[in-house]
Specification:
The chain is built from 8 helices and no strands. The protein has about 190 residues and is mostly helical. The protein has a single domain, classed as Four Helix Bundle (Hemerythrin (Met), subunit A). The protein is globular and about 45 Å long.
């Protein structure tokens, strides 16, 4: 194991920020069932975004930032957005091609799953630190969803396209960071 490698421990998830992340997971799982009432779904999505902002703020404020919390936060965000996009596409709020644009980052990163599986299963992860490219991707992604709910199709197309561009940049930057730090390499 690498020196100073962040470890994933379930016990690190027993805190207030992780509770906020858990609330977002509940919204993510329930989101498709809310789509028959688009305004409820929109309100739930906005609340989920609020919990996403607050979990990091609260973790820093309480001094309980952990790698397990950062990993859980990222995965819950992905679950939320995949479920929301899928439900919104089924209900005709977004065109199917947006799915490719919205999840360009994840599509590019998919091969990394096999590359990083070994270290991850041993509880070793690359330090989770948000990069500008990732923050931009998340911002454009949220903007796309808000535009879709508001019926702003032109804004949605621009935001979805920017999500794809920023997502490509983020995926390559995350891959480069993990490779430079030796994650997924033998040894």
């Amino acid at each position: 194991m690498r020196k100073n490698t962040p470890q994933l421990r379930v016990s690190d998830l027993w805190n207030w920020p992780s509770l906020l992340t858990g609330v977002r997971l509940g919204i993510a799982v329930g989101f498709p069932f809310l789509m028959h009432r688009p305004m409820w779904a929109f309100a739930a999505y906005l609340f989920a975004l609020l919990t996403d902002i607050l979990d990091g703020v609260v973790a820093r404020w309480l001094g309980v930032e952990t790698q397990a919390g950062a990993v859980a936060d990222g995965w819950v965000d992905k679950i939320l957005h995949v479920n929301a996009a899928w439900a919104m596409w089924i209900h005709g709020l977004i065109p199917g091609v947006w799915m490719l644009l919205l999840f360009t980052r994840e599509i590019i990163q998919f091969p990394q799953i096999l590359w990083l599986a070994g270290p991850f299963c041993r509880g070793s992860v690359c330090p989770q630190k948000a990069l500008l490219s990732g923050r931009l991707t998340s911002t454009f992604l949220a903007t796309t969803f808000v535009a879709a709910f508001m019926g702003w199709v032109s804004v949605g197309w621009v935001a979805a396209s920017l999500t794809g561009l920023a997502g490509s940049w983020a995926a390559l930057e995350y891959f480069s960071r993990e490779y430079a730090q030796g994650y997924g390499r033998a040894g």
